[in-house]
Amino acid sequence: MSTKHVPFVKISKYYDDDIISLSEKSEILNHLHTCPLCNQEFDKLKKMIHMASCFCDIRITSENEFISNTLCRIHESAEKQLKVRSFIPRKSFLNARPVSAVAASIIGAVALTVYITTNVNNNSSHHFTMRNNAPGYTAAARNNTLSILQNNNVRLLEKSQSYIIGEVTPAELTNLTRQLSPSQVSIVAAGSRSVMPAATMSSTSGSDWQDVSYTNDVVDRTGTVIIKVRLYSE
Amino acid sequence: MSDTYDIEIIDNVLNGDVDTFAEIIKKYQNRVFSYVFTKCNNYEEAVDITQDIFVMTFESLKSFRREAKFSTWLYSIMVNYCKNYQKKMRRYNSVSIDKIDEHDYEIQLSDERQNTEETVITEDMLRILKEELYQLPDDHKEILVLRDIDGLAYNEIAEILGISLSNVKVRIHRGREMLKNRLQERGAL
User: Measured between CA atoms, how close is A126 to chain B, in angstroms?
Assistant: First the structure.
Protein backbone atom coordinates (compact mmCIF):
# COMPACT_ATOMS: atom_id res chain seq x y z
CA MET A 1 0.00 0.00 0.00
CA SER A 2 2.80 2.40 0.85
CA THR A 3 4.37 2.27 -2.62
CA LYS A 4 1.21 1.98 -4.74
CA HIS A 5 -1.23 4.87 -4.93
CA VAL A 6 -4.57 4.46 -3.20
CA PRO A 7 -7.44 4.24 -5.71
CA PHE A 8 -9.87 7.14 -5.44
CA VAL A 9 -12.76 4.82 -4.60
CA LYS A 10 -10.81 3.61 -1.58
CA ILE A 11 -10.03 7.19 -0.55
CA SER A 12 -13.74 7.89 -0.75
CA LYS A 13 -14.47 4.85 1.42
CA TYR A 14 -11.84 6.00 3.89
CA TYR A 15 -13.46 9.44 4.01
CA ASP A 16 -16.80 7.85 4.88
CA ASP A 17 -15.15 5.60 7.46
CA ASP A 18 -16.33 2.65 5.42
CA ILE A 19 -13.16 0.58 5.67
CA ILE A 20 -13.72 -2.20 8.13
CA SER A 21 -10.21 -3.60 8.48
CA LEU A 22 -8.23 -1.59 11.03
CA SER A 23 -4.92 -2.55 9.46
CA GLU A 24 -6.06 -1.37 6.03
CA LYS A 25 -7.31 1.84 7.56
CA SER A 26 -3.98 2.58 9.18
CA GLU A 27 -2.13 1.67 5.97
CA ILE A 28 -4.18 4.20 4.03
CA LEU A 29 -3.62 6.82 6.70
CA ASN A 30 0.13 6.26 6.62
CA HIS A 31 0.14 6.38 2.84
CA LEU A 32 -1.77 9.65 2.78
CA HIS A 33 0.84 11.13 5.10
CA THR A 34 3.71 10.11 2.86
CA CYS A 35 2.29 10.34 -0.68
CA PRO A 36 1.63 13.93 -1.83
CA LEU A 37 -0.42 12.75 -4.85
CA CYS A 38 -2.85 10.66 -2.83
CA ASN A 39 -3.01 13.32 -0.17
CA GLN A 40 -3.93 15.80 -2.88
CA GLU A 41 -6.71 13.47 -4.07
CA PHE A 42 -8.00 13.23 -0.52
CA ASP A 43 -8.02 17.04 -0.23
CA LYS A 44 -9.90 17.30 -3.53
CA LEU A 45 -12.53 14.90 -2.25
CA LYS A 46 -12.93 16.88 0.98
CA LYS A 47 -13.19 20.11 -0.97
CA MET A 48 -15.76 18.65 -3.38
CA ILE A 49 -17.95 17.37 -0.56
CA HIS A 50 -17.63 20.67 1.24
CA MET A 51 -18.72 22.47 -1.92
CA ALA A 52 -21.64 20.08 -2.40
CA SER A 53 -22.80 20.74 1.14
CA CYS A 54 -23.26 24.39 0.11
CA PHE A 55 -26.34 23.29 -1.81
CA CYS A 56 -27.96 22.84 1.58
CA ASP A 57 -27.99 26.64 1.70
CA ILE A 58 -30.50 26.67 -1.13
CA ARG A 59 -33.73 27.59 0.56
CA ILE A 60 -37.22 28.56 -0.35
CA THR A 61 -37.15 32.35 -0.25
CA SER A 62 -40.55 32.89 1.37
CA GLU A 63 -40.95 29.93 3.68
CA ASN A 64 -44.09 31.10 5.49
CA GLU A 65 -45.85 31.85 2.23
CA PHE A 66 -44.86 28.43 0.96
CA ILE A 67 -46.27 26.74 4.07
CA SER A 68 -49.53 28.65 3.86
CA ASN A 69 -49.97 27.98 0.12
CA THR A 70 -49.20 24.29 0.56
CA LEU A 71 -51.67 24.07 3.45
CA CYS A 72 -54.34 25.63 1.25
CA ARG A 73 -53.85 22.87 -1.30
CA ILE A 74 -53.81 20.28 1.45
CA HIS A 75 -57.12 21.55 2.81
CA GLU A 76 -58.55 21.39 -0.69
CA SER A 77 -57.34 17.80 -0.99
CA ALA A 78 -58.77 16.92 2.45
CA GLU A 79 -62.14 18.30 1.41
CA LYS A 80 -62.06 16.23 -1.77
CA GLN A 81 -61.11 13.07 0.14
CA LEU A 82 -63.98 13.66 2.51
CA LYS A 83 -66.46 14.04 -0.34
CA VAL A 84 -65.20 10.90 -2.07
CA ARG A 85 -65.29 8.89 1.15
CA SER A 86 -68.91 9.74 1.76
CA PHE A 87 -69.85 7.93 -1.46
CA ILE A 88 -67.86 4.76 -0.78
CA PRO A 89 -69.69 2.02 1.13
CA ARG A 90 -67.91 0.61 4.15
CA LYS A 91 -65.63 -2.35 3.49
CA SER A 92 -67.20 -4.47 6.23
CA PHE A 93 -70.54 -4.01 4.54
CA LEU A 94 -69.17 -5.45 1.31
CA ASN A 95 -67.45 -8.32 3.10
CA ALA A 96 -70.50 -9.42 5.10
CA ARG A 97 -71.02 -13.16 5.37
CA PRO A 98 -73.58 -14.64 2.99
CA VAL A 99 -77.09 -14.53 4.40
CA SER A 100 -80.37 -15.07 2.68
CA ALA A 101 -81.15 -12.61 -0.09
CA VAL A 102 -84.15 -11.10 1.69
CA ALA A 103 -82.32 -10.63 4.99
CA ALA A 104 -79.33 -9.19 3.19
CA SER A 105 -81.37 -6.64 1.34
CA ILE A 106 -83.22 -5.58 4.51
CA ILE A 107 -79.94 -5.26 6.44
CA GLY A 108 -78.43 -3.50 3.47
CA ALA A 109 -81.23 -0.98 3.21
CA VAL A 110 -81.14 -0.22 6.94
CA ALA A 111 -77.33 -0.01 6.97
CA LEU A 112 -77.30 2.28 3.97
CA THR A 113 -79.88 4.58 5.51
CA VAL A 114 -77.93 4.74 8.77
CA TYR A 115 -74.68 5.21 6.90
CA ILE A 116 -75.93 8.05 4.73
CA THR A 117 -77.56 9.78 7.69
CA THR A 118 -74.37 9.48 9.73
CA ASN A 119 -72.21 10.78 6.94
CA VAL A 120 -74.45 13.71 6.17
CA ASN A 121 -74.24 14.66 9.85
CA ASN A 122 -70.49 14.08 9.91
CA ASN A 123 -70.02 16.22 6.86
CA SER A 124 -71.74 19.11 8.47
CA SER A 125 -69.53 18.95 11.55
CA HIS A 126 -66.26 17.52 10.30
CA HIS A 127 -62.98 18.44 11.95
CA PHE A 128 -61.39 20.13 8.96
CA THR A 129 -61.46 23.84 9.37
CA MET A 130 -61.10 25.57 6.03
CA ARG A 131 -58.56 28.32 6.08
CA ASN A 132 -58.89 31.57 4.28
CA ASN A 133 -57.06 30.53 1.18
CA ALA A 134 -54.39 32.73 -0.31
CA PRO A 135 -56.00 34.38 -3.35
CA GLY A 136 -54.02 32.43 -5.94
CA TYR A 137 -54.47 29.06 -4.25
CA THR A 138 -58.23 28.56 -4.44
CA ALA A 139 -60.25 26.26 -6.64
CA ALA A 140 -61.68 29.41 -8.24
CA ALA A 141 -58.20 30.62 -9.21
CA ARG A 142 -57.42 27.21 -10.66
CA ASN A 143 -60.66 27.13 -12.67
CA ASN A 144 -60.02 30.64 -13.88
CA THR A 145 -56.61 29.57 -15.20
CA LEU A 146 -58.19 26.54 -16.87
CA SER A 147 -60.83 28.64 -18.62
CA ILE A 148 -58.16 31.08 -19.86
CA LEU A 149 -56.29 28.11 -21.32
CA GLN A 150 -59.47 26.82 -22.94
CA ASN A 151 -60.24 30.20 -24.46
CA ASN A 152 -56.76 30.37 -25.95
CA ASN A 153 -56.99 26.95 -27.57
CA VAL A 154 -54.07 25.49 -25.67
CA ARG A 155 -53.60 21.90 -26.83
CA LEU A 156 -53.35 19.68 -23.80
CA LEU A 157 -50.43 17.25 -23.61
CA GLU A 158 -50.19 16.49 -19.91
CA LYS A 159 -52.05 17.48 -16.79
CA SER A 160 -51.39 17.21 -13.07
CA GLN A 161 -53.02 18.78 -10.04
CA SER A 162 -50.83 21.84 -10.12
CA TYR A 163 -49.78 22.32 -13.73
CA ILE A 164 -50.51 21.44 -17.33
CA ILE A 165 -48.21 20.91 -20.26
CA GLY A 166 -49.65 22.22 -23.48
CA GLU A 167 -48.77 23.32 -26.96
CA VAL A 168 -49.44 26.74 -28.45
CA THR A 169 -48.48 28.95 -31.33
CA PRO A 170 -46.42 32.07 -30.55
CA ALA A 171 -49.49 34.27 -31.10
CA GLU A 172 -51.53 32.19 -28.65
CA LEU A 173 -48.65 32.34 -26.20
CA THR A 174 -48.57 36.14 -26.40
CA ASN A 175 -52.30 36.30 -25.64
CA LEU A 176 -51.88 33.83 -22.83
CA THR A 177 -49.08 35.71 -21.11
CA ARG A 178 -51.24 38.85 -21.19
CA GLN A 179 -54.01 37.09 -19.32
CA LEU A 180 -51.99 35.01 -16.86
CA SER A 181 -49.36 36.02 -14.35
CA PRO A 182 -45.84 35.85 -15.87
CA SER A 183 -44.68 33.41 -13.19
CA GLN A 184 -47.40 30.96 -14.25
CA VAL A 185 -46.19 30.33 -17.79
CA SER A 186 -42.85 28.88 -18.77
CA ILE A 187 -41.60 27.50 -22.05
CA VAL A 188 -40.52 23.89 -21.77
CA ALA A 189 -39.42 23.17 -25.31
CA ALA A 190 -39.83 24.05 -28.94
CA GLY A 191 -42.85 22.16 -30.22
CA SER A 192 -41.15 20.64 -33.19
CA ARG A 193 -41.61 17.08 -32.01
CA SER A 194 -45.03 15.53 -31.58
CA VAL A 195 -45.31 13.20 -28.64
CA MET A 196 -48.96 12.32 -28.77
CA PRO A 197 -52.00 13.54 -30.63
CA ALA A 198 -52.86 16.95 -29.36
CA ALA A 199 -56.18 17.13 -27.54
CA THR A 200 -57.89 20.36 -28.39
CA MET A 201 -59.46 22.51 -25.75
CA SER A 202 -62.54 23.41 -27.73
CA SER A 203 -65.01 22.11 -25.19
CA THR A 204 -66.73 24.89 -23.30
CA SER A 205 -68.70 22.67 -20.99
CA GLY A 206 -67.46 22.06 -17.47
CA SER A 207 -64.60 23.67 -15.68
CA ASP A 208 -62.11 20.84 -15.96
CA TRP A 209 -60.13 19.51 -18.90
CA GLN A 210 -61.90 17.31 -21.37
CA ASP A 211 -59.98 15.59 -24.13
CA VAL A 212 -62.90 16.12 -26.44
CA SER A 213 -61.47 15.79 -29.88
CA TYR A 214 -58.18 14.45 -31.06
CA THR A 215 -56.72 15.84 -34.21
CA ASN A 216 -55.77 12.95 -36.41
CA ASP A 217 -53.91 14.95 -38.97
CA VAL A 218 -50.37 16.03 -38.18
CA VAL A 219 -50.50 19.61 -37.07
CA ASP A 220 -47.87 21.82 -38.60
CA ARG A 221 -45.68 22.27 -35.59
CA THR A 222 -43.21 24.72 -37.06
CA GLY A 223 -43.03 27.57 -34.62
CA THR A 224 -45.19 26.04 -31.93
CA VAL A 225 -43.95 25.86 -28.38
CA ILE A 226 -44.58 23.50 -25.52
CA ILE A 227 -45.42 25.35 -22.35
CA LYS A 228 -45.93 24.53 -18.74
CA VAL A 229 -48.66 26.48 -17.00
CA ARG A 230 -49.02 26.52 -13.24
CA LEU A 231 -52.71 26.28 -12.44
CA TYR A 232 -52.28 28.29 -9.27
CA SER A 233 -51.00 31.84 -9.40
CA GLU A 234 -48.91 33.47 -6.66
CA MET B 1 -37.58 17.47 16.55
CA SER B 2 -37.37 13.70 16.65
CA ASP B 3 -39.12 11.02 14.66
CA THR B 4 -41.43 10.50 17.66
CA TYR B 5 -42.47 14.11 17.27
CA ASP B 6 -43.17 13.51 13.56
CA ILE B 7 -45.35 10.54 14.48
CA GLU B 8 -47.28 12.65 17.00
CA ILE B 9 -47.95 15.23 14.30
CA ILE B 10 -49.05 12.57 11.84
CA ASP B 11 -51.45 11.14 14.41
CA ASN B 12 -52.92 14.60 14.91
CA VAL B 13 -53.29 15.09 11.17
CA LEU B 14 -54.95 11.71 10.78
CA ASN B 15 -57.33 12.64 13.58
CA GLY B 16 -58.46 15.62 11.53
CA ASP B 17 -56.15 18.43 12.68
CA VAL B 18 -54.86 19.15 9.19
CA ASP B 19 -53.21 22.43 10.19
CA THR B 20 -50.56 20.63 12.26
CA PHE B 21 -49.17 19.30 8.97
CA ALA B 22 -47.60 22.77 8.73
CA GLU B 23 -45.02 21.52 11.26
CA ILE B 24 -43.98 18.76 8.88
CA ILE B 25 -43.74 21.20 5.98
CA LYS B 26 -41.75 23.63 8.09
CA LYS B 27 -39.31 20.95 9.18
CA TYR B 28 -38.69 19.35 5.81
CA GLN B 29 -39.44 22.01 3.19
CA ASN B 30 -35.84 23.08 2.59
CA ARG B 31 -34.45 19.57 2.58
CA VAL B 32 -37.01 18.48 0.02
CA PHE B 33 -36.56 21.70 -1.91
CA SER B 34 -32.77 21.42 -2.13
CA TYR B 35 -33.06 17.87 -3.47
CA VAL B 36 -35.69 18.86 -6.02
CA PHE B 37 -33.71 21.90 -7.05
CA THR B 38 -30.63 19.85 -7.86
CA LYS B 39 -32.88 17.70 -10.03
CA CYS B 40 -34.63 20.39 -12.05
CA ASN B 41 -32.27 23.36 -11.70
CA ASN B 42 -35.11 25.89 -11.79
CA TYR B 43 -36.37 27.75 -8.71
CA GLU B 44 -40.06 28.16 -9.64
CA GLU B 45 -40.33 24.61 -10.86
CA ALA B 46 -38.64 23.29 -7.73
CA VAL B 47 -41.10 25.19 -5.52
CA ASP B 48 -44.06 23.69 -7.41
CA ILE B 49 -42.67 20.19 -7.23
CA THR B 50 -41.88 20.55 -3.53
CA GLN B 51 -45.46 21.60 -2.95
CA ASP B 52 -46.77 18.64 -4.96
CA ILE B 53 -44.61 16.31 -2.88
CA PHE B 54 -46.09 17.58 0.39
CA VAL B 55 -49.64 17.33 -0.94
CA MET B 56 -48.94 13.80 -2.12
CA THR B 57 -47.39 12.92 1.25
CA PHE B 58 -50.49 14.23 3.01
CA GLU B 59 -52.76 12.25 0.72
CA SER B 60 -50.77 9.06 1.36
CA LEU B 61 -50.43 9.46 5.13
CA LYS B 62 -52.82 6.59 5.79
CA SER B 63 -50.55 4.20 3.95
CA PHE B 64 -47.54 5.13 6.10
CA ARG B 65 -46.93 1.85 7.94
CA ARG B 66 -44.42 3.28 10.40
CA GLU B 67 -41.89 0.55 9.67
CA ALA B 68 -39.34 3.15 8.59
CA LYS B 69 -38.72 6.64 9.90
CA PHE B 70 -41.19 9.21 8.63
CA SER B 71 -38.35 11.20 7.02
CA THR B 72 -37.23 8.09 5.09
CA TRP B 73 -40.77 7.54 3.87
CA LEU B 74 -41.11 11.20 2.86
CA TYR B 75 -37.81 11.03 0.98
CA SER B 76 -38.89 7.94 -0.91
CA ILE B 77 -42.02 9.79 -2.04
CA MET B 78 -39.78 12.69 -3.04
CA VAL B 79 -37.38 10.50 -5.01
CA ASN B 80 -40.17 8.66 -6.84
CA TYR B 81 -42.05 11.85 -7.62
CA CYS B 82 -38.92 13.41 -9.10
CA LYS B 83 -38.21 10.31 -11.17
CA ASN B 84 -41.73 10.30 -12.63
CA TYR B 85 -41.69 14.02 -13.20
CA GLN B 86 -38.39 13.84 -15.06
CA LYS B 87 -39.68 11.00 -17.21
CA LYS B 88 -42.71 13.09 -18.14
CA MET B 89 -40.65 16.17 -18.90
CA ARG B 90 -38.15 14.22 -21.00
CA ARG B 91 -40.96 13.24 -23.33
CA TYR B 92 -41.36 16.90 -24.27
CA ASN B 93 -37.81 18.11 -23.97
CA SER B 94 -36.31 18.84 -27.33
CA VAL B 95 -34.49 21.67 -25.61
CA SER B 96 -33.08 21.15 -22.15
CA ILE B 97 -34.95 23.08 -19.48
CA ASP B 98 -31.83 24.51 -17.93
CA LYS B 99 -30.81 26.02 -21.25
CA ILE B 100 -34.07 27.92 -21.60
CA ASP B 101 -34.22 29.09 -18.05
CA GLU B 102 -33.24 32.73 -17.91
CA HIS B 103 -34.01 33.18 -14.26
CA ASP B 104 -31.48 30.77 -12.93
CA TYR B 105 -31.48 30.73 -9.19
CA GLU B 106 -28.26 31.94 -7.62
CA ILE B 107 -26.87 29.88 -4.80
CA GLN B 108 -26.74 32.06 -1.73
CA LEU B 109 -23.57 31.54 0.21
CA SER B 110 -23.63 31.92 3.95
CA ASP B 111 -22.30 35.20 5.33
CA GLU B 112 -18.86 34.08 6.44
CA ARG B 113 -17.84 33.23 2.89
CA GLN B 114 -19.01 36.47 1.33
CA ASN B 115 -16.99 39.51 0.31
CA THR B 116 -13.64 37.80 0.05
CA GLU B 117 -11.50 37.14 -2.96
CA GLU B 118 -12.00 33.45 -2.27
CA THR B 119 -15.76 33.85 -2.62
CA VAL B 120 -15.44 34.77 -6.29
CA ILE B 121 -13.57 31.55 -6.95
CA THR B 122 -15.92 29.53 -4.78
CA GLU B 123 -19.03 30.89 -6.45
CA ASP B 124 -17.58 30.04 -9.80
CA MET B 125 -16.70 26.60 -8.55
CA LEU B 126 -20.18 26.15 -7.17
CA ARG B 127 -21.65 27.05 -10.51
CA ILE B 128 -19.45 24.44 -12.19
CA LEU B 129 -20.27 21.90 -9.51
CA LYS B 130 -23.98 22.53 -10.03
CA GLU B 131 -23.61 22.12 -13.79
CA GLU B 132 -21.55 18.96 -13.51
CA LEU B 133 -23.74 17.43 -10.82
CA TYR B 134 -26.73 18.11 -13.04
CA GLN B 135 -24.99 16.32 -15.92
CA LEU B 136 -24.22 13.16 -13.97
CA PRO B 137 -26.23 10.02 -14.75
CA ASP B 138 -29.44 10.01 -12.66
CA ASP B 139 -28.42 7.04 -10.53
CA HIS B 140 -25.26 8.74 -9.37
CA LYS B 141 -26.67 12.24 -9.15
CA GLU B 142 -29.52 11.26 -6.88
CA ILE B 143 -27.32 9.25 -4.56
CA LEU B 144 -24.72 12.01 -4.26
CA VAL B 145 -27.44 14.52 -3.43
CA LEU B 146 -28.81 12.27 -0.70
CA ARG B 147 -25.38 11.52 0.72
CA ASP B 148 -23.23 14.62 0.27
CA ILE B 149 -25.88 17.32 0.25
CA ASP B 150 -28.60 15.96 2.52
CA GLY B 151 -26.08 14.04 4.62
CA LEU B 152 -28.13 10.84 4.89
CA ALA B 153 -26.67 7.57 6.14
CA TYR B 154 -26.00 4.66 3.77
CA ASN B 155 -28.83 2.55 5.20
CA GLU B 156 -31.34 5.41 4.94
CA ILE B 157 -30.42 5.89 1.29
CA ALA B 158 -30.79 2.17 0.66
CA GLU B 159 -34.28 2.26 2.16
CA ILE B 160 -35.33 5.35 0.23
CA LEU B 161 -34.10 4.07 -3.12
CA GLY B 162 -35.02 0.45 -2.48
CA ILE B 163 -31.55 -0.84 -3.34
CA SER B 164 -28.98 -2.87 -1.42
CA LEU B 165 -26.46 -1.29 0.92
CA SER B 166 -23.54 -2.50 -1.19
CA ASN B 167 -25.14 -0.98 -4.28
CA VAL B 168 -25.47 2.34 -2.44
CA LYS B 169 -21.79 2.31 -1.53
CA VAL B 170 -20.68 1.44 -5.04
CA ARG B 171 -22.76 4.23 -6.55
CA ILE B 172 -21.57 6.81 -4.02
CA HIS B 173 -17.89 6.13 -4.53
CA ARG B 174 -18.13 5.85 -8.32
CA GLY B 175 -20.32 8.95 -8.48
CA ARG B 176 -17.79 10.92 -6.47
CA GLU B 177 -14.99 9.77 -8.73
CA MET B 178 -16.95 10.74 -11.81
CA LEU B 179 -17.78 14.15 -10.38
CA LYS B 180 -14.21 14.75 -9.21
CA ASN B 181 -12.83 13.96 -12.68
CA ARG B 182 -15.30 16.32 -14.33
CA LEU B 183 -14.56 19.13 -11.89
CA GLN B 184 -10.87 18.59 -12.35
CA GLU B 185 -11.22 18.82 -16.13
CA ARG B 186 -12.95 22.16 -15.74
CA GLY B 187 -10.36 23.42 -13.27
CA ALA B 188 -12.78 23.65 -10.38
CA LEU B 189 -10.69 21.49 -8.07
Answer: 8
Is residue A227 classed exposed, middle or buried when 0-12, 13-18 and 19+ CB atoms within 10 A define those classes?
Answer: buried
Angle between helices B117-135 and A36-53 (to 10 degrees): 90
Give chain A positions within 8 Å (CB) of B169: 13, 18
**Quick check: B63 contacting A, CB < 8 Å?**
no
Q: What are phi and psi of B162, to 5 degrees?
A: 65, 40
Q: What is the distance, to the nearest Å, from the Cα of residue A66 to the centroid of all Cα atoms in its chain?
A: 15
Name the B residues in 73-102 with CB < 8 Å from any A CB: 88-89, 91-95, 97, 100
Does B173 contact A at CB distance below 8 Å?
yes
Preferred mutation among B88, B91, B101, B126 to probe A, highest tally of A CBs within 10 A: B91
Please give chain A's pLDDT, 234 residues, in tens.
556 899 999 999 999 999 888 999 999 999 999 999 999 999 999 999 988 888 777 889 888 999 999 999 999 888 877 766 665 555 444 444 554 556 656 665 665 555 544 444 444 333 333 344 455 566 777 778 888 888 888 887 777 767 788 888 878 888 888 888 777 887 777 664 443 333 333 333 333 333 323 333 333 445 677 888 877 765
